[in-house]
Amino acid sequence: MAVHGRHTKVLPSQLNKVCPETGDSPAMHPREVSDFEVVPNLQQSSSSIGKGQRKAHFPSGSNEKENLISWIPENIRKKECTYFVESSQTSDSGRVVCECGYLREQHLEDAAKPPLFLGKEWDPSRHIQEMPTDAFGDIRFTGLGQKTGKYVRVSSDTPPRVIYHLMTQHWGLDAPNLLISVTGGAKNFVMKPRLKNIFRQGLVKVAQTTGAWIITGGSHTGVMKQVGEAVRDSVLSCSYKEGDIVTIGIATWGTVYNRESLICPMGGFPAEYVLDEENQGSLSCLDSNHSHFILVDNGTHGKYGVEIPLRTRLEKFISKQTKVKGGVAIKIPIVCVVLEGGPGTLDTIYNAITNGTPCVIVEGSGRVADVIAQVAGLPVPEITISLIRQKLSVLFHDTYEQFTEGQVVEWTKKIQDIVRSRQLLTIFREGKSGQQDVDVAILQALFKASRNQDHFGRENWDHQLKLAVAWNRVDIARSEIFTDDYEWKPTDLHSVMAAALISNKPEFVKLFVEQGVRLKEFVTWDTLIYLYDNMAPSCLFHSKLQKVLLEEKEHTASSKMPRIQLHHVSQVQGSSLRSLYKRTSGRVTFTIDPVRDLLIWAVVQSRKELAEIIWAQSQDCMVAALACSKILKELAKEEEDTDTTDEMLALAEQYEHKAIGVFTECYRKDEERAQKLLVRVSEAWGKTTCLQLALEAKNMNFVSHGGVQAFLTKVWWGKMCVDNGLWRVIVCMLFFPFLYTSFITFREKKMQPMGCLTRFRAFFTAPVVIFHMNILSYFTFLLLFAYVLMVDFQPSPSWWEYLIYFWLFSLVCEETRQLLHDPDGLGVLKMASLYFKDFWNKLDVGAIVVFIIGLTCRLIPSTLYPGRIILSLAFIIFCLRLMHIFTVSKTLGPKIIIVKRMMKDVFFFLFLLAVWVVSFGVAKQAILIHNEERVEWLFRGVVYHSYLTIFGQIPSYIDGVNFNIDQCSPNGTDPYKPKCPETNEDNKEPIFPEWLTVILLCLYLLFTNILLLNLLIAMFNYTFQQVQQHTDQIWKFQRHDLIEEYHGRPPAPPPFILLSHLQLLVRRGLLRRPATRHRQLKEKLEKNEEAALLSWEMYLKENYLQHQQCQEKQNTEQKIRDIAQRVDVLADLLDMDRVKRTSLVEQRLGALEDQVHQSAKALRWIIQALQGSGFSSEEDMPPLVSSRTSEEKEFDPEEKPGEKQPTHHVLARNLLYPGSHTTRFPVPDEKVPWEVDFQLYDPPAYSADHRDTAVQDPFSPSLESLLKINYNTMDGLIDRQSFHGLYAVQDGLPLNPMGRTGLRGRGRLHCFGPNHALHPVVTRWRRNLDGSIIRKSLKKMLEVLVAQYPLSDVWALPGGSLEPGETLPLKLKWILRREFWPQFQNLLKQGTEIHKGYLDDPRNTDNAWVETVAISVHFDNQNDVEMKRLNSFLQGCDPELCIRWQVLDRRIPLHANHKQLLQKVSTLLGAYY
Questions:
Q1: DSSP state, 334?
Q2: Is the predicted pLDDT of residue 1176 greater than 90, yes or no?
Q3: What is the Cα–Cα distance from 137 to 772, expressed in whole angstroms?
Q4: What Å distances lie between residue 1142 and 98, 193, 1189, CA to CA?
Q5: What phi, psi does 315 have (nearest 5°)?
Q6: Taking the complete model, does pTM exceed 0.85, yes or no?
Q7: What is the mean pLDDT of the chain?
Q8: Which of 141, 597, 765, 976 is deepest in the core (most CB within 10 A)?
């Protein structure tokens, strides 16, 4: 069995102390899994460990841990040294160690036995084997709180895919939106306090806002410690709960101190880890502020840097993953952040830049970061070996002497290449204008790198925008994306608009609307369904929608869940919006009102900010706001979570205030048009009106608005003026001839003449007149009813009683009319539900039913008296109906509302009272009276007497003092007397315990009279206070019901109303005319009038929104926030100014030091010259540098310095030679020319063997074979002549005429010397559909023919190397069919030569290089016959090739040397580039 320890030997007996339960695991043979190999059981894994063991190990929540225990050992390995070879070095304690660094006892038991065929030399490839990992689970840092992280020990050869699967599937991490790789100094270093705070805050902010992963080295030292403390401070200082910051530490297992505590073959849940910096020695402790640890094991101990290759592969793998969130798919971007650092950090930066990873260098952190930051603004030719040496001497003053000359040269070359890729390099400089935060610098670096990346068309801009949406950084989108560099079309933003809506990013939605996205074009039928498909699962509406779909599935007996359609949405929302989305067999392209549909989608999810933005775009804004309020209130009734309910109700109230605000603006501007908005039928919102929606949503504030009440008063008075006075109306009702005088005034002028017959009809159809006539009729009915009940109730009905029956019949007909009157076509059931929702209608029906029952009993002689009793009860109910009449009064109406509320209080109070009454009554009855069998007297004793006791009627026998046996029945036989209490048989004295009954009576009276009655009074008082505060609103709201009732009521009062009912019966029954609603309460406008009215409303809505913004700015709290923000900005500007001044002083001091240094050298030269025999020549005099060389000069790497094209080849000096593992010798720019002395120059040799090519120079050049080659002439079929003239030949090898490349041999080229190539540049003008040439920046735009060859990821011009004796390149022949070759040669002869000579190619070496001829073939006419023939021949080429006409642009994704040729073509033709 493998011993799972390293630092000290862990015996099997000791293992239980580390891990409670372990099992033997057989030794595994080493195996490696490539990135493309299928990892077994990634989704489902099994293990040989019994379930009983696992459950014993994990008492609760064991399923997840069981899966982890079985999956990790099957897929993740560790490494163990299997062969002990004594090393010349010893451990810190002086003991003998193996070459792997571990002690003998820390090896496997068989490792000390020398097996056969292993050899004597220690070889990691043979002597280190992989086996299942034994360290994984949860890690908890002892003494540092209860925070628990995750950890795993992995082999250095573990495929990144497996680790990524572990993190996302088993550790439960969401895929990141951004990967931040922080690198730098591994030892503790000192940063300026301000810079440290800026870095920490910025790093945490970018991680929080973008959902990023931060990857570091994981140890508690250096830059890793800085990151950990930044995360710790953020947790302590804020309550960020969207998700913890994911900080992943990738460290070397063999350098972790106290790693024995992490070893547990069954997993540590948790493993206790002690952070002990004092005793760690050369090892390092893990940082307690990281959330996850990946500990990389290569089988060695104490060797740092083991994790770097795996970390690089993992970061590269993650950066290639695609994350889909909110409908947007993005490749996970990666950025490298650098603080301080040494040689290893420089390699990391160079590799990152080479791989296209943007880097952010934090200036001021020290060492490598400062070296790069200080030279990043210089032109590359000015970055010399001497300059780098000077920077190293200053910034590496402690270790500068350890740098060799070769290392300085290598550093110079790498720094030159890093600075040359300025688009990938961002310097964060404290105090730099426009870059105050590290988070902005990081995101700007990503956008800058993406913007400078080669791409076709708008692919890159789309990628940048998707990144900004995924990160939710609208500030970056505004400053970096929506600029003048690219013109966005509204349709280009539709996909990201949907993503912003789904992921609830209102700022982006607002930005896209500002950029021209029209909601009417964006919102289609399919878009709406897509949005409802991607609703937030946590919202109530989503669950209700799923319930509707489930019901439909059960109804249709389908096996699949039906897809969401918009008629499902209307089923959830309720009856008022049911007509919005009707079920149709086909689909429509656009909905009636896209803004409405989008607003509903946002509101049902309670997305406040989104809904506000969409509402601001709506045209029918008042109806929209009231509809939103209604929807939210309906959903709040069904929401179980109280917090969510409160949020919904608050949002509903906000929309009510929006409607009030817009209506107020309209009412101030034009009262008549504003009132027309109240009753306008809105087709988009289900043919409803503002007033109807406000009533259904119970928006009392809106209905009680002065403008709404003025409109209702106007309706109440009909066509009369509202200032007539009620007494005038009553006088005219009694003496109608007064109507033809000026006693009553009307609003319309045509009714003012004295003889107008319409005045009579206008007066008696006014609701106020109808109301008072009905009052008069109702009082008459009640008086007649009372007279019959009390005076004239005969066995056979009198004619007065028959009149009552006729009168009641008219009331029944009117109630039936109200029940069936359906002008909106809602249906009988809906009208019935609306009818019975009204309390007064219930009372009317109850009174009529009781009256009919009483009438039935009254007509039967045997039940005449019960019939009179029932009719008396009906009279009571009819009298209660009078309260509804009083609601019109501003004085009595609110009091009736208070009474109704108090009735509810009394109802709940009776429950409490019944408990005390029944409990006392039963106890009293049981104590006093024995076996009372009469039910009526039981009820009297238990309930009736107990209830009367509350009001002071105390039973006389309860205390025995006033007991009189004559007032009761001893044996309970007298039906008119209660049964006597328990008495003595001798003297008939009561024997019950008087003291107990008195105590019970006192307690009963105490709780009922004092406690409960005062509680009732307090409840009444609270209700009164609550209602009194809103009495006016409630009365105004309920006033509408009365006005609407009498507005639609026939003018004649009962019983004459039967004439109106008869007329209605003829119209509806015989003539079949539909019911109509009076235009005053619901009016459908003409299209032109409605459009003008809505435009006017929308204009005033904008005024309202502007007014709201002004009020927010004038708000005291907002003013305080604005002032605080300005003070912070001012403080930052002052700090920045101080930093700039300090920086300027430092620059001047540096310039002064340089001048003093040069002066000292000059003086030394003068002294030496004077001491000699004569003066030296002037050429030997050292140059004196001006004191103003660097004064007041501040370089900015963001601003590209005006440097010319490099005079030396660049691509030919890339350190890694393409297609091989060969590394070039570093050659800085100043050492490129052969004439410059470079004694250190010792390049490696490399020549590839091209087995597929017959013609190639010797693979291993020897002097004998090289002497056979004829340079600078035709060597058989091979042309070895250079376009640049004769080139030098040294030791049988030609020398590159452009200088050193860092590699000898011919590399991947076929021949030594020049390798000739041909590159045709085939172009045409880019045209519109009508044939006109497209222009940009006043220049014509070109299209160029490009191709992508097999096994290549980049596009290229259709050309390449020329085979000996051939006139066309082989790659060009692949593109063209054979019959077109001669014609294409003619085109080349007619073309224009744009380049002839050396081509800077990555394959070039010191002894072999590429020279090419580039010919421009331009088709000026779109009807050119040759171009048409070329296109026809291109269509039939090799299907593995990709060929396209591409717009010529500087960002076109081609080889860098090919882009130089395109630039020359555009210059030649005067085209846009």
A1: E
A2: no
A3: 84
A4: 54, 16, 18
A5: -65, -40
A6: no
A7: 80
A8: 597
